[in-house]
Amino acid sequence: MRTDTIIIGGGAAGCFAAVQAARLGKSVLVFDKNEKLGRKLRITGKGRCNVTNACPSDELMKNIPVNPRFLYSAFAAFDNYDTMSFFEELGVPLKTERGDRVFPVSDNANDIADALVHEMKRLGAKVIHRRVTKVLTRGGAVSGVRAGGEEYEADSVLIACGGRSYSVTGSDGDGYMLAEALGHTVTPIKPSLVPLTSPDKYCAELMGLSLRNVTLNLYDREKLIFSELGEMLFTHFGVSGPLVLSASSHIRDMLPDRYSLKIDLKPALDAEKLDARILRDFEENLNRDFANGIRHLLPAKLIPAAVKLSGIPAEQKVNGITREQRRRFGELIKAFPVRISGFRPIDEAIVTSGGISVKEIDPKTMQSKLVSGLYFAGEVIDVDAYTGGFNLQIAFSTAYCAAVNM
Questions:
Q1: Which residues are paired to 233 by β-bridges?
Q2: Dihedral angle sign, alpha carbons of residues 242, 243, 249, 253
Q3: SS3 content of the chain, % helix, strand, coil (to 5)
Q4: Bridge partner list, 98
Q5: DSSP letter string over 55-120?
Q6: Residues contacting residue 250 through CB under 8 Å, at least 6 positions apart
Q7: Chain-centroid distance, C-alpha 312
Q8: Could you list the mean pLDDT of each consecutive 10-residue stretch along the chain, which spans 406 residues?
């Protein structure tokens, strides 16, 4: 069986590339191991699908910590506004929420995935639900693939089968194996946009406590490297939630005692206003124990840990607390500490950091510099971004470049 273009992977990048290549008149054959295409896409954004970000296009680069310059040409060819137009033209109305995050109006990720699949079918792209075990070459150029013991010929092959995160959806690292077999370098793989573990026992005691409208500050030793207002969650292993996932993408080498979090529990109050608020609470509870005197200041579940970290005995009467003790307690509320010991497993990560070296890929075409006719798109490449729709935009932009150049 011969076709113009073979695409390995039926996720966001693979399906998008299939649509674009088919629109250009190419015959397209997509290989995907799953029974249903876009499996990871259907669960992204808690099933809502944060499809892109509506920030000014020149802001895109600022949200990509790993190899942003590699994506300059891809974003110039197909940017976030192009993505929004593409899906709305396919009949999926979109909306923009806090942080310029773009979602389907329906809040249903299936609408995004189904729109891609339906357009592929309409254009005649064919799908085979088999695992590709080898990319075939002849004379330094691709000639097809082997899947299910059979060989399929093609003029170009696109590897778009994702990274290693969410392996249950089929992203189990096959793309790295196929690329390495052809001589490509795969940079070290680690999780990104992932929950973080902590050795602090009070995290487990606080399990299930969700904090809203707090500022999470991430420190690399003494240096502040991330600060953002939003939501987070304490878990049995440490911390999770949107702020934590964003912070995790700023962590490079996870060394002992290198990274730590400080949570500003009252970001709307500066130190002076917070002290006035604490003093007011104390004056209303002068004869109560300290632990009871702060019951209106913090979530009930957080009070035992805050009392312990403050160094003030829980049973000490509020009227006996000194100005210095009160000041230190205010500092604790503005910088509640959580030590970081590691990442949760890569299976729990939203994206994979690391991948096929960008030095071996032409940034204008996404073609391999080592094998003619071989292309890459999406998470399999060593590029990743912060949370907010930027990683899906990378998938769409790189897929577009590959598709129009194959």
A1: 210, 240
A2: negative
A3: 35, 25, 35
A4: none
A5: S-GGGGGGG--BSGGGGHHHHHHS-HHHHHHHHHHTT--EEEEGGGEEEETT--HHHHHHHHHHHH
A6: 65, 218, 225, 226
A7: 40
A8: 95 97 98 92 90 92 91 97 98 95 97 98 97 96 96 98 60 86 93 91 96 97 94 96 90 88 97 94 89 92 96 92 94 98 84 91 98 97 90 97 97
DSSP 8-state code for residue 33: S
Q: How many residues are present in the chain?
A: 406
3-state DSSP call for residue 155? strand
CA distance 75 to 115: 22
Sign of CA dihedral 86, 92, 97, 99: negative
Where would I find the H helices in 165-298?
174-181, 201-205, 242-248, 271-284, 290-293
Residue 330's contacts (CB-CB under 8 Å, 6 or more residues apart) are 271, 274, 275, 278
C-beta separation of 159 from 345 below 8 A: no
d(CA 392, CA 124): 24
**pLDDT digit string, tens, across residues 35-89:** 899 998 998 888 999 999 999 988 999 999 889 999 999 999 999 999 999 999 9
Which amino acid is present at 278? I
CA distance 344 to 239: 10
Answer positive or negative: Cα dihedral of 243, 41, 18, 177.
positive
Rounded-to-integer distance, Cα 92 and Cα 109, Å:
10
Q: Within 10 A of 318 (CB to CB), how many other CB atoms are there?
A: 21
Residue burial 175-212, b: 16+ Cβ < 10 Å; e: rest: bbebbeebebebbebbbbbbbbbbebebbeebeebebe
The pTM of the full predicted model, rounded to 2 decimals, is 0.82
What type of residue sits at position 36? K
Amino acid letter for position 176: Y
| Sequence letter at residue 195 | P
**Residue written as token pair 């004869």:** 287
Q: Is 322 exposed, middle or buried (0-12, 13-18, 19+ CB in 10 A)?
A: exposed
In angstroms, rounded to a whole number, what is the distance separating the alpha carbons of residues 321 and 325? 6
